[in-house]
Amino acid sequence: MQDKNLKKTAKQSKRYPFVAEHRGGPLTKENHRKLIKWARECSEHVLSLIDKEIDKRLIYALNVAKEWENDNVPTGVAMKASLGAHAVARQLEDPVSKAVARSIGQAVATAHMADHSLCGAFYALKAVKFANKDIERERDWQIKKLGDLPSEIREIIQTMWKKKELWQINKKELITLK
Question: For the segment 43-64, what is each residue's pLDDT rounded down to a tens digit?
Answer without folding.
Answer: 999 999 999 999 999 999 999 9
